[in-house]
């Protein structure tokens, strides 16, 4: 098991520090990042946490998946590699 976790359904008020605080109860947090919209700076409602070990990551999944925070049930699972994006510009891949 890897140590990087996907965290979804975050309250939009959550920042990196809030995310780190939630996960620190389960072990050493190496990094905690809430993704933000480039234009507005507003949270996208999901982020990633890297734990110190696989055991800590599993403990965080068990302890936080489904936990309600500010009226939202967190989704916590192993992060998967990002899917490659197509190189098309939105016009069916055709370049003009």
- What's the CATH topology label? Alpha-Beta Plaits
Number of strand segments: 6
Helix content: 10-25%
Helix tally?
Answer: 2
Q: In percent terms, what proportion of residues is strand?
A: 25-35%
- CATH architecture level-2 label: 2-Layer Sandwich
- Report low-confidence residues grouped into runs of 5 or more: none
**Largest beta sheet, briefly?**
4 strands, antiparallel
Give the CATH H-level superfamily: RRM (RNA recognition motif) domain
Strand order of the largest sheet: 2-3-1-6
* N- and C-termini, Cα separation: 45 Å
* CATH class annotation: Alpha Beta
Number of domains: 1
SSE ordering: EHEEHEEE
**Could you report the average pLDDT, rounded to the nearest whole number?**
90
* Global structural class: alpha+beta
The dominant shape is globular
- Gyration radius (Cα, Å) is 16 Å
Give a structural overview.
A hairpin with a 6-residue loop joins strand 2 and strand 3. The mean pLDDT is 90. This protein has one domain: 2-Layer Sandwich (Alpha-Beta Plaits), CATH 3.30.70. The chain is built from 2 helices and 6 strands; from the N terminus they run βαββαβββ. The strands form 2 sheets. It has a 4-stranded antiparallel β-sheet. A two-stranded antiparallel ribbon has the order 4-5. By secondary structure, the chain is of the alpha+beta class. The protein is globular.
